[in-house]
Amino acid sequence: DQEPSIRVSFSEEEKTITIEDDGVGMTREEVIENLGTIAQSGTKRFSEALEEGADVLESLIGQFGVGFYSAFMIADKVDVQTLSINPDSDSVAWQSDGGEGYSIGEGTRESRGTTITLYLKEDAGEYLSEWKIKDTIKKHSDFVQWPILMEVPVIEMPDEDGEEGNDDESKEEGSEEKEAKTTLERINQDAALWMKSSSDISDEEYNEFYKHVTKNWEDPLCHVHIRAEGSLEFNSILFVPRNPSWQLDNANYKVDLKLYQKRIKVIEHANDLLP
Length: 275
Prior knowledge:
By secondary structure, the protein is of the alpha+beta class.
């Protein structure tokens, strides 16, 4: 009935982050097959990888469910409510604390899609802020094809005539009303140019994309768009800056090659892919 989207919200009081969509959802069998497998073995392996170091952790990227395991890096409990698009499906609730077990039962969701709630650990309070969540979305999911929306407060300017309430009580009630107003703001960019054909992209689009990714105000000197197909398939755009970066003077400088898997950034500096 409307454009599908992903909605993100958080509660400082309850120490939760909620991610909700209106996708295809999951049946009880699918929940057991997918999330049940994660709880039984995957989370334990992920925890071991965290202790072994970044190299081992990166080797897990691309395997099913790694993104879901990472929820337990900041949450001590995850609650999933889902309703499948399949006819006659019932809403399903799934919960896990990151151990080897999980609970499953009747859910509360009344429309198709999935709601994931993270109950944050005591030391993960930094994620309970509008800025931090926006920054995380932009860093990793800026090019997800569906809109990622977030509730943000509406800042209202006072009336020009400066009218106020008759007493202090009415002023306080008015303030509370204004603070409660929110609107949905789109956070992600959705311009994964490397996934498109070069014949469908203008020079202006290439330049704007370059500026967005690099935060550089200048147009690039040139670009190369590559679509490789065969036993190994990938899409890439290589931009050559107009001027050398000041960072080249730094002995620890890393090649600024970003690697995305299914439009999700998985490596910020994939310098091992270039000589």
